[in-house]
Amino acid sequence: MKKQFLYLTVIICQFLTTCHEGRVSKNENAKLPAHHIVSYCYLAVDKKDSAFLELVTYGKDKVKGHLLIRNSGKPKNTGQFLGQVKDDTLFLIYHFYKGMDSSRRFTNPLAMLKTKDTLVLGTGHILHKLGRSYFDKNVPINFEKGRFQFGQVKCK
Q: Is residue 69 part of a domain?
């Protein structure tokens, strides 16, 4: 009897955990507590170049996701990012590789300004120290010179 109760408890816990995960529409997001996971997708086009971003929010101010950048005439960049939201800005660490060679990985910081349903990729002065890259805190990030302005699209 105790063994059956333990199995039933584990199954119920797994069911409840998986019910809270997954994609949630933007309208439903307003009703959810901060610990829920919500997915958004964005697309940006700049002449012949494009970028697709899937952004997953979790916790109060945490984000993670996937970014794919296709530059005309160059190998695509694809990878994962982790980051944090501070006010209206996302600060991300992007781990990616170029083309088909997944053995050479790169890491860059990214900053995106969030306005309503758009994300604007900013440019800034990047410093390198002890194998890490980060934005120079003494130089403001410029969101007007950013190449990609992401518009929200439906996730597939």
A: yes
